[in-house]
Amino acid sequence: MKRAILPLVAASVLLGSLAIPARLSAQTAKATSSNSVPRTADGHPDLSGVWWRGADVGGKTATGATAIPSTGAGGGAAGARAAAPPAATFPSLYQPSAQAKAKKMADKDDPALACVPTAFGTLNVSMFDVGAVAQIVQTPKFMIMLAETYHGFQIIPFDGRPHRDSVPPSYRGDAIGRWDGDTFVVDKTNFNDENWISAEGRVSFHSDALHITERYRRVDANTLEIEATLEDSKVLTKPWVVPKQTLVLAPFDQIMELACAGAESEALVDAAARQTPGK
Q: How confident is the model at residue 18 (pLDDT cuts 50, 70, 90)?
């Protein structure tokens, strides 16, 4: 399947500085005749596959909707009805001290400008990182989640082992998994405090107390639902319950590489510094 590179140009947005892979929309995918959930030899649902929201950044889903809508500073979808209350975001739950710190930060402070991955995910999907497509490879002992951006990956054991206490804190945390019936539950701890929850200038710093719990459920052959809760006792007033994310199986079986070499960072930071503070 041929897939082209679509450049998105926006000085204040990190992804606007990169060549974003644009793919055929899900309209071109053949409908799967069976809605049964694929299972592995051990009887668990098979989460393997390339997952997205029906199209890449700026693309159209089978229903004609934009798969990844543009967002405002608060992270809400542009064009949403005025009467609808804004969905909670990680920064909206900041304690007063964190709110004060956030007001002093802007696009130029975004760690992702220096090719640093997010702690969670700009589009509220952890395995996307700052992209819009991800791949899961499931083995008898590990769930391997691969992001297109920054060569990102996370290896999640689900054979009963505990969190590792011999590894240093990291950008994406230490993850372990377990099955709760047909739902795959992921527990992430041991984060450093050097990146943000999201990217693209959305100020969303966290502390080393960050704790993430995710639940993955394959609804049918083509659909994956993800729920997540983020806790951070040092910066949040209460846990952030992330809106449920619904992904669909992509019409291709391999992700692409969206590298970030850092060579462009100086220009990106300079451009971001000219944006309005406190975005």
A: very low
End-to-end CA distance of the chain: 39
DSSP states of 218-253: EEETTEEEEEEEEE-TTTBSS-EEEEEEEEEE-SSS
According to DSSP, residue 44 is labeled: S
**Kind and range of the H or E run holding 5:** strand 4-7
Q: Indicate the average pLDDT of the chain.
A: 82
CB contact set of 141 (below 8 Å; sequence gap of 6+): 157, 158, 159
Asked if residue 106 lies in contact with residue 203, where contact means CB atoms within 8 angstroms, the answer is yes
pTM over 0.90: no
Contact between 129 and 146 under an 8 Å Cβ cutoff? The reply is no
Chain center to CA of 93: 19
Q: Is the predicted pLDDT of residue 7 greater than 50, yes or no?
A: no
Q: How far apart are CA 59 and CA 207, in angstroms?
A: 35
Q: How far is residue 21 from each of residues 2, 190, 252, measured CA to CA in Å? A: 11, 32, 13
Which stretches does DSSP call E strand in 86-222?
134-138, 142-147, 153-157, 174-180, 183-189, 211-220
Going from N- to C-terminal start, the domains of the chain cover 4-25+43-68+88-273
Look at residue 157 and tell me whether its pLDDT is greater than 80: yes
19-22/223-231 β-pairing: unpaired
CB distance 48 to 216 below 8 Å: no
